[in-house]
Amino acid sequence: MQLLEEHFDAAFNAPDGIRKLRELILTLGMQGKLVEQDPSDPPASELLKEIETKKRKLVESKKIKLPRKLPPIDISEVPFDLPPGWEWIRLGELGVINPRNNAEDDLDVGFVSMSMISSDIGVDHSFETRKWKDIKTGFTHIANGDIALAKITPCFENAKSCVFKNLPNGIGAGTTELHVFRNSFGAVEPLYLLNFLKNPKYIADAIPFMTGTAGQRRVPTEYFTQTLFPLPPLPEQRRIVTKIDQLMARCNEIEALRISREHKRQSVHGSALNALLSATEPETFAQAWGFLRAHFGDLHQTPKDIEELRQAVIQLAVMGKLVPQDPSDPPARILIDDINNERQRLISLGKIKSYKPLPNVSVEEMPFQIPQGWEWVRLNTITAISGGITKGRNLTNRKIVELPYLRVANVQRGYLVLSEMKNIELPVDEIEKYILRKGDLLITEGGDWDKVGRTAIWQGEIDTCVHQNHVFKARKILATQNELWLEKFLNSQFCRIYFAGASKQTTNLASINMTQLQNCPIALPPLLEQHRIISRLNHLISLCNKLDKVLKAQTSKQSEILNALMSTLIPSSVPSLQRAPIRSAKLPKAHDSLEGSALPQSEFESLHLESLSALPIKRRGRPAKKTSASLRPAIPSAANEAEAIRMLENMKLERALGTRQNSLFDLED
């Protein structure tokens, strides 16, 4: 226990620390390492004698059947040494397995289904009152004080088990997927046995012995009956149960505290990002960025935080807040004119279809204000959009060829998955119409409502590849256009919201048509600025990826600390006579094991975004709308920045002034 206390914080720093510590508590309890042994306790060997005496009397009075003899315990089965006064016994010798009840048909009794039994420790079962005649056959018999264990997957793996109590008239029946132990000889404290059955180690050891087909695998009755059980003296059993209850209550308190603190931290994180994204003036943007930089380490502690940061950076990029505008850049209007001129030339040559101009983007359609020199355009204004091949056409009497083609599954958000390609037949004279060219944008027509409009760039990965009709193709008009900019914008939150609103939605599915895609509003910067934005964005995304890797490495090292702790306290199961005595091993401190893995936050903190000083005050378009909930990170937010700062400072103060117990989950500063 001293070693456990010394490294309590290290254990809880691991992401699965609470779960592992609960397992550790149960295992130590079953090994006699949670409480002191009392030499005045009657030894368990006396319990074994009492069991035999009571068993013989119950058999003679015909209250139970004569149990079949179980195999003797072999030394090779013994997983660890027992403390003085303990004994090994099989469950089938300790009590009666799967007993039967005798009662009047009209008696009110309890019925317990599997859903009424909890996987958690300390949670009682529920029951329904029924007549005994209705459930006495076809169900498992139970009584107050019986200990039940779910035997079928996944309920067994989830530790569904309980001690029955408060049943009407003391008896009942339940699901047939239970093993039931009746404490007929009074040699075991029911909650002590329940803790043994809920221990993940017991469950893990039993899984290889389950029988049956997938989804219907069960723990055999023979395995349950022959389970090797460490039996302490009865007074010690009660002391162990009390200690486990105390430690589990402590785990519950710390888990609730961790959840509360993480909720506060995420709330501040969400407020900080929202302040950054909603800033419309250089001063407010600088203030929001300064707050994020100052508290970067506190606000970015999980991969989820990094993903939200990554999305915020992309959103800043497409809003023109990532790099300064250069007044010497040719404005986007010139780029649009060049595109229109090239389009007319290609139409005259018959290389693309004639173009019907679409209405200008209205103020109501603009999701944010754009910087000077930018323009709002529709996607069809700056690209040539076309559909793909329809499967199942009648191609009789046509010269056909078989080619690889892209499906919706191949097109992800920002990248392609080409490991599983399929082929399709199409007429030779249609190859030119459907073939993909390097730089083409591929946009999905439908799928889950949040996946409509996924966009990726074709880089010529496969020679002579085409696309099906559920994947749109948007091709640049000018070779000098920046397809990377269009891909980032089409995958941004703004376009996701547009596609979600424009799409036809059925149960969990949605789709867009050609017209809706053509009308998608696009914020178009000057061409030179597009290149600067993409360069800066790639650098920041690279930093996000680096942060993500470091956090995962940090998490792995925290888990190593916990595993080292557990292996020190619970050596590997080996035969008793061969096992070395337990010694207090010196474990690394949490901060020692994380050396060299500090978050590279300084790279982010040292960034001085030029846009802080270069954001133009004059911006065109209607005033920015209140940020849509769907544009914000999907986490609770403080009411305002002042509230966010207050919450963060309170969180830090609590950490500084709190006890060791209420600081377990805080990383070292």
TrEMBL record:
Which keywords accompany this UniProt record? DNA-binding, Endonuclease, Hydrolase, Nuclease, Restriction system
Superkingdom of this protein's organism: Bacteria
- Pfam families tied to this protein: Methylase_S
Q: Which one GO biological process term can you cite for this protein?
A: DNA restriction-modification system
Limits of the Type I restriction modification DNA specificity domain: 85-258, 371-553
**Mind listing the GO molecular function terms for this protein?**
DNA binding; endonuclease activity
Q: Give the family per the record.
A: Belongs to the type-I restriction system S methylase family.
Name of protein: Type I restriction endonuclease EcoAI subunit S
Question: Species name for this entry?
Answer: Deinococcus cellulosilyticus (strain DSM 18568 / NBRC 106333 / KACC 11606 / 5516J-15)
